[in-house]
Amino acid sequence: MSELFDAVDALIAGHAPLPQPGERERLRKAHGLTQEQVASALGVRRATVVSWESGKTEPRPPQREAYARLLDGLAELYPAPPVSRPAPAAGEAAAASPTTASTQAVPAPVPGREPTAAAGAAGPEPAPTAARPPRTMVRRPAPAKATTAPAVNDPRFANGPLAVVDIEDGHPVAYCVGGLVLDVPAKSVPALVDWTLNEAKLGASRLNGAGKDADPLIVLTPAACERYGLPVRLSNEERTSGRLPEGHKVSKQLARADWQLTRRGFGPWARIYRPAQGGKRACVQLCIPSWDALDTRSWGDAGQLPAPELARVLGTYATRVITPRGSTAVTGLELMTALHPPTRASEPDGAGKRHSQHNPGSLGKEPVSCAPCEAPDGHPLLAGLPRFHQRTPAEMLMEEAYDWARPLTDEECTKRYVVGIDVNMAFAAAANGTAVGLGAPTQLRNPAFDPKLPGSWLVDLSHIELDDRLPSPFTPRGERPTGPAWYATPSVAYAVELGYQVTPVEAWVRYDSGRYLDGWYNRLRDAYMTTMADLGVTTDLTPAEFLAAMDGHRLRDPQMATVLSAVKATVKGGLGKLRERPRGESWKPGEPWRALSRPTWRPDIRAAVISKARTNMHRKTLKLADATGQYPLAVLSDCAVYASDGPSPLDFLPYKDGKPLPGGFRLGVSPGMVKHEGTQSTLWAESVHEQHGRDENIARYIKDGHVTRTDNGE
Question: Closest Cα partner for 268 from 311, 239, 296?
């Protein structure tokens, strides 16, 4: 009989009901799970989960029953949102359905305070403006060529992650994602904070079940700054300090309403909060573009955009990456933490209570000390070194990006062009799949090298001799090592891959390790690919079609081009923050600086990613050289320049029957593939070398041919 029962159970498991493919993806993302996490839990490959979510294949036993159980549990936590009704036409506001929320509702009372306390304690307010009839939420058409952010699934944040507050006809209005416009009844900054938390339905769901929901972001235009008593521009003194003076009237208003500011005060990115009560957060992030909150190196001219367009740019970025918390570099770090929160809830104890415990796979709550070789100059670990001591490669880990160039050979001078190719999202691609340390390092003497063990290794690689037409993969300047030096694990592993013997004499390794950056890479990769698709560049293009699509792609939708720039800046800035140096803190060498107190201050992780990116570039150049006899003229970070008979990358990259060289450079939009960076004449390259020296890196100027280096006359 038990065999019959087993057979029946198998039939039930084999036909366990599942939601539609799109709903499967929604539920996973709502709980902050990655496809890798689901695949690992079910014992399948990530590609299998991708197929399940796209509807290409269906799960089979025994995974089907477990997958159905997972989705059923998530469906209870994140019910499908009700189908929204279209906004009423003009003149029909009075007959709007009850589901259309009014923005003139009375604010919800704050525990322990009278309902009107926030507004009444806000201090003097601007003179009243002419009254107008209350208006309901209006969803306006998004700007032309808009690809609005994905639909919001969490009803708590029905209006999206952020709003840009502007003044229209003398009244504040909030522009949200998807063309939604809300009336803002608040007449002061404290009242604006209360409205945001109690009525606006702004924010974003956590990216990981153990993490926290993203706080709502309010962006203030210059007109809104004036309306709420803030300066449109910071004075020189305020810009230097990065904040308003503590005695500013708005700061006093916030204090009287029991709101607090973080240590950085009321600056371009101000966080206004009350201490959490009962596990419930009360926090709003402000962004003021006219105070230079949006760095032009990352955001271009986004700070000058009209409110609806700025809402589209920032809203798209927030939905695809994460709600900004500061610069793109700061946001890059925040994304790492949001995907791997430092703590999680434990299983219930005997009394049924849960407790906070370390979240495996995260960097934890407390910072860990780096190894002495990983410490940058001035670090407290190096306080005992003599003043002005110059550390050698045998004392300091120097994993940096390539900056290498060489003169053209006579044969290369006969070619008409020099063509640059650039690796897409090179550092993000290098982060993917890289095992990094999660905890403190352990010192080893004369260790056997283990390519699976992240850390720093003191080893002599000077015996490795490669073609001098290629840069050495072991130094940023491409020079052959001259003796023992410190290397991150990927560099030493590449030496082994090339067939050379390595004998470390010392190492600082991290036994507690994991692929911490995989989820970070996946999130940024998806944001990058989706945004490139908005610009007309997709994965299904042939190499020639790809090059044609890339020609002028940023002009097709400048706003999405801005999002693209911000996504790229998030990658480089986030990795750079892992080794942040002192920044205007009256710091002296040997003293700790503020960044050292973060668990995400991890120079070893940055070194591992850069090491892998550099060896990845060398591997591709070596493949191309072995297959075609072509060698790079210059390499700068993720850009390589080659001599070519024609102006296109297709004139020197080998493609056979439409297929690229295995392991070499491949044209395409995906991270790790390459695009056309720029083309100049060979005469131009020779003139640069004649004017600035044979070692001048022409990859730095290949994009537009404009040499920015100043000629010193030597």
Answer: 239
Scored b (16 or more CB within 10 A) or e, 400-427 reads ebbbbbbebeeebeebebbbbbbbbbbb
Residues 434, 438, 441: CA angle, nearest 5 degrees = 105
C-alpha 256/C-alpha 279 separation (Å) is 24
- Residue 506 phi, psi dihedral angles, 5° rounding: -160, 155
Residue whose C-alpha is closest to residue 156's, from 83, 86, 205? 205
Query: 10 Å Cβ neighbour count for 501?
Result: 9
Q: Show contacts of 64-69: CB within 8 Å, 24+ apart.
A: 64/13, 64/14, 64/16, 64/18, 65/12, 65/13, 65/16, 66/41, 66/42, 67/16, 67/18, 67/42, 68/16, 68/17, 68/18, 69/16
Handedness of CA 153, 156, 162, 166 (dihedral sign): positive
Pairing of strands 180-183, 138-139: antiparallel
CA 246 to chain centroid, in Å, comes to 32
Show Cβ contacts of residue 571 under 8 Å, excluding neighbours closer than 6 positions.
Answer: 332, 425, 427, 428, 524
Residue 97 and residue 639: Cα distance in Å, rounded?
57
Instruction: For the chain, give the percent of residues with pLDDT over 70.
Output: 87
- Residue 691, classed as helix, strand or coil, is helix
The torsion defined by the Cα of 245, 249, 253 and 259, in degrees rounded to 10, comes to -10
Q: Are 508 and 602 in contact (CB under 8 A)?
A: no
Residue that has been written with the tokens 């025994």 in this structure = 62
User: Which residues lie below 8 Å from residue 9, measured CB to CB, with a gap of 6+?
Assistant: none
Structure-token pair, residue 188: 């002061």
3-state secondary structure of 582: coil
Structure letter (DSSP) for residue 511: S
pTM of the model: 0.80
d(CA 108, CA 464): 70
268 burial via Cβ count (<10 Å: 0-12, 13-18, 19+): buried
- For residue 20, give the amino acid letter: Q
- Long-range CB contact pairs, 126-133, < 8 A, 24+: 126/187, 126/227, 126/229, 129/170, 129/171, 130/170, 132/169, 132/171
pLDDT (0 to 100) of residue 302: 96
Best-predicted range by mean pLDDT (280-284, 353-357, 562-566, 584-588): 562-566
| Residue partners of 153: CB distance under 8 A and separation at least 6 | 26, 29, 30, 78, 80, 81, 205
Residue range 16-38, pLDDT digits in tens: 788 888 889 889 988 878 888 88
How many residues in the chain?
Answer: 714
Q: What angle do CA 589, 593, 599 make, to 5 degrees?
A: 135
Nearest to 167 by CA among 179, 184, 190, 180: 184
**Token pair for residue 438?**
């999660």
Beta bridge partners of residue 167, listed in sequence order:
172
CB 533 within 8 A of CB 658: no
> Are the C-beta atoms of residues 43 and 37 closer than 8 Å to each other?
no
The string of DSSP codes covering 43-63 is TS-HHHHHHHHHTSS---TTH
Give the pLDDT of residue 57: 83
